[in-house]
Design goal:
Length: 77
Amino acid sequence: MKNIKVLGSGCANCKRTFALIEETAKSKGVDVELEKVEDIGAIMGYGVMSTPGVVIDGQVVHAGGVPDRKKVEGWLD
């Protein structure tokens, strides 16, 4: 099971990113542990300066803007 964190302040793009990952995982039948991280200190700890950011199993894979569906599918393969 992949641990996925969506980093962001709770803005619309952050919510959209969270929903996109959740929806894509369900459609692919992939179990993920998905969580939101809204604490600025924690976000900065990952070195993410623009949100939304996505961290998978402790590694930053995306920062700034909503990722496209193909990119999310690639993370889940």
